[in-house]
């Protein structure tokens, strides 16, 4: 299969990257991060999450962030909205695209959201209906596609079944998430081949965590299978709660370096992207999690 000539990166740093941070992050700093990312050329940014602050305190200010960002034409500013209440709050904030998530593992679904996979999908029905009525696009996530912290290996057929359900419900795109980062290139290609029999490949995206240092290799494997959309997080923001001290989301800078080296178009400015990552890392008081960013910064002196 031909490698895509153009790739869309879905920047999840402001949501997935920040949601597990313990220290308070101001609305102003979150707004600055989103604006820095769009200034660097990112065309899709997951800005926040409309879930109960009891469960995800860091996302409590999402409405304020949406109110203050400098919206650019042609940029998608999305939010996670897994239930009707969250969806309604997102609509009030002017959100034009939302995301819902399901797990490919029964144990993960039960421990994460206290319900079965089937029950979680049922909960999305009113969200999908409301989204259709409001003309709002819905993107679907499937977690634990290449391994579960409780069940171990997850059969690709099981992932395909959940992805197909989300697609049939009306999700225009389904992002396959290697939540604990245990996937390898071979397993990734097998997964895409199986899921691709149920959901068209141009409706699939990859979401790889870098816990075992395999995320960029898995993205390369996905490109060879024709996947042209990938989720990533500036400066590698986002830890993995199941592997203490391990990294979480693959760094946007690292993915961009791979794509640039393959001559694949993204429209993203690496220098501005590195600056965006450094600025939020300074706010958080942590080292930049991107190897590419650290190399570029070292060259700068």
UniProtKB/TrEMBL annotation:
Reaction it catalyzes: (3S)-3-hydroxy-3-methylglutaryl-CoA = acetoacetate + acetyl-CoA
Family: Belongs to the HMG-CoA lyase family.
Source taxon at top rank: Bacteria
Entry keyword Lyase: yes
Keywords noted in UniProt: Lyase, Metal-binding
Protein name: hydroxymethylglutaryl-CoA lyase
Pathway annotation: Metabolic intermediate metabolism; (S)-3-hydroxy-3-methylglutaryl-CoA degradation; acetoacetate from (S)-3-hydroxy-3-methylglutaryl-CoA: step 1/1
A biological-process GO annotation: L-leucine catabolic process
Pfam families in alphabetical order: HMGL-like (PF00682)
GO molecular function, one term: metal ion binding
Chain ranges of the Pyruvate carboxyltransferase domain: 7-274
InterPro entries, sorted: Aldolase_TIM (IPR013785), HMG_CoA_lyase_AS (IPR000138), HMGL (IPR043594), PYR_CT (IPR000891)
Broad class of enzyme this protein falls into: lyase
Entry EC no(s): 4.1.3.4
